[in-house]
Design brief:
The structure holds two protein chains of two kinds.
Chain A (H helix, E strand, L loop, with lengths): L6 E10 L2 E11 L4 E5 L6 H9 L6 E5 L4 H6 L1 E4 L10 H11 L4 H14 L15 H13 L5 E5 L7 H16 L3 E5 L3 H7 L2 E6 L2 E7 H6 L4 H7 L6
Parallel strand pairs in A: 3-7, 3-8, 5-6, 6-7
Antiparallel strand pairs in A: 1-2, 1-4, 8-9
Chain B lengths: L1 H15 L3 H34 L5 H11 L4 H12 L14 H37 L4 H11 L1 H16 L3 H7 L9 H11 L2 H29 L5
The chains are: A alpha/beta, B mainly alpha.
The complex binds adenosine-5'-triphosphate and magnesium ion.
């Protein structure tokens, strides 16, 4: 795995139609484990993750990795808020990133089958991915992101609208990846999930990092009134 | 009404007796149209995908022009191709006028905008769905186009069939550039025009029914082939 951390974002600003969606955001991400991005709807979590991943045009600021940008790009994966399913079979979905990266079909298929089994879709490998259930789609999307063994994995609300069982499966996948050395950055509205997974937390409010801190302390005794209110379940705007 | 019955009767007789002239022109119709369709698809489908995945300055203009070209009057296309291919024209040395090749060229020009427009409509929707993922995976433009063409193949088939329908029933352009020469460039539609002109309505209608049957048969065959290729619906 390439050494791409620390990730240093400086003054990152995204503006669309004259409205500032996020920024200026300064953020350092290093070490290992899971960083959790939380904040109310519209705070800019999705925009921030996409800006760090490099798929959103920045209006100001920079996102720097410890390695050259093109290399960094290939060592990252992103799981979208609504998983994108290619109109292909489950197995073909899984091997798509491998094939796009130039892996031979045979090797890709072998690895794909292994992952199919790992996410409990071994019997469904030939089924169209578009007919999977919401939870199965999400697991497939995460497996498709992990199959390239990314150094950094972004997940945008990976268990939104999943039930308890599916959420646990998704979290197991994330934790296994993190233990295997993948740096995970995820957004979530599920504070239980945030507490379970986080090594550190970023609290986003109105497009800015309002508070940032290591997990147990942040969740136990947040430093700002807004973070305290948000964690207590109050409506923060 | 009697003409219609006469037409049906003529069609039946042509088919039952396997009329050699009929077989010859029907096969030529198919050969010209399918060749034109194959060439048109090779041009139009990648173009449609490119227009979907790539933002360039003249993109909107290109799409608008394609849409406008869908309504090209075939007889004018025929005329232009005629002028280009005629002995005195810039491509006259090729000696293509009044050959099936000239007819194929004219048909390609007529159906490329149609196939490209219809294909672009559906590929644009597919691209909207795939955009985020394919950008995130850092795919090359070639890979994006290939992915859209492969995953969108069902709707592309519809675009191709629309092109086929337009080409097989086309008469104006191929009459001008082909000349409707017996045993050389006569096809179903030009034969129908000829027989109608001569007042042989029954034979003209009979040929017409055979043409319709041919078009339906090809459509069904292609649909059937695409269904057996993969049992599922997407
Ligand atoms: N392309 C765009 N043009 C204009 N506004 C946008 C665009 N994309 C996002 N926004 C706005 O930017 C703000 C931040 O959006 P973002 O999706 O990043 O928030 P979020 O924190 O992920 O919200 P949620 O929790 O609902 O997913 C929202 O107000 C949204 O409406
Ligand atoms: Mg979001």
């Amino acid at each position: 795995m390439v050494e791409m951390l620390p990730l240093v974002a400086t003054g990152v600003t995204v503006t669309r139609r004259g409205k500032r969606l996020i920024g200026p955001v300064d953020l350092n991400i290093e070490g290992d484990g899971v960083t959790v991005v939380i904040g109310p709807n519209g705070a800019g979590k999705t925009t921030l993750l996409q800006a760090l991943h490099g798929i959103t045009r920045l209006n100001a600021g920079t996102v720097r990795w410890a390695c050259p940008a093109t290399q960094a790009r290939r060592a990252q994966a992103f799981v979208f808020q609504t998983p994108v399913m290619l109109r292909r079979s489950v197995l073909e979905n899984l091997i798509y990133p491998l094939r796009a990266g130039g892996m031979a079909r045979k090797a890709a298929l072998a690895l794909g089958r292994e992952w199919c089994g790992r996410i409990g879709l071994g019997a469904a490998e030939g089924r169209p991915a578009t007919v999977l259930s919401r939870g199965e789609k999400q697991k497939l999307a995460i497996a498709r992101a992990l199959i390239i063994e990314p150094a950094v994995l972004f997940l945008d609300e990976p268990s939104a609208s999943l039930d308890g069982g599916a959420t646990r499966e998704v979290e197991t996948l994330i934790e296994t990846a993190a233990k295997g050395g993948t740096r995970v950055i995820l957004s979530t509205h599920d504070m239980g999930q945030a507490r379970r997974l986080a090594r550190d937390a970023v609290f986003l409010l109105r497009g800015r990092v309002h508070e940032r801190g290591p997990a147990p302390e942040f969740f136990h005794s947040p430093g700002t009134a807004q973070a305290r209110a948000f964690l207590a379940g109050d409506i923060v705007e | 009404m009697t003409d219609l019955w006469g037409g049906l009767y003529a069609a039946a007789r042509l088919l039952i007796t396997l009329d050699p002239d009929l077989i010859e022109i029907a096969l030529r119709s198919l050969r010209v149209t399918l060749s034109a369709l194959a060439i048109a698809c090779v041009i139009a489908l990648p173009l449609a995908a490119l227009l979907a995945v790539r933002r360039f300055r003249l993109r909107r203009a290109t799409i608008a022009i394609l849409n406008a070209l869908m309504g090209l009057p075939p007889v004018v296309v025929g005329l232009v191709v005629y002028v280009l291919l005629s002995r005195a024209g810039p491509l006259g040395v090729l000696g293509l006028l009044f050959t099936p090749t000239a007819m194929i060229i004219a048909q390609v020009i007529i159906i490329v905008p149609l196939v490209a427009s219809i294909a672009h409509q559906s590929l644009r929707e597919l691209w909207a769905e795939y955009h985020d993922l394919l950008i995130s995976l850092d795919t090359t433009q070639r890979q994006r186009i290939a992915t859209l063409l492969w995953d969108g193949r069902r709707s592309l088939l519809t675009a191709a069939l629309a092109g086929f329908g337009r080409a097989i029933g086309e008469v104006g352009a191929i009459m001008v550039v082909g000349g409707n020469i017996d045993h050389a460039t006569r096809v179903m539609t030009t034969a129908i025009a000829l027989e109608t002109g001569k007042g042989n309505f029954a034979l003209a209608l009979g040929l017409g029914f055979v043409l319709i049957a041919l078009a339906i048969a090809v459509n069904l065959a292609i649909h059937w082939l695409s269904r057996t290729e993969r049992g599922q619906q997407w």
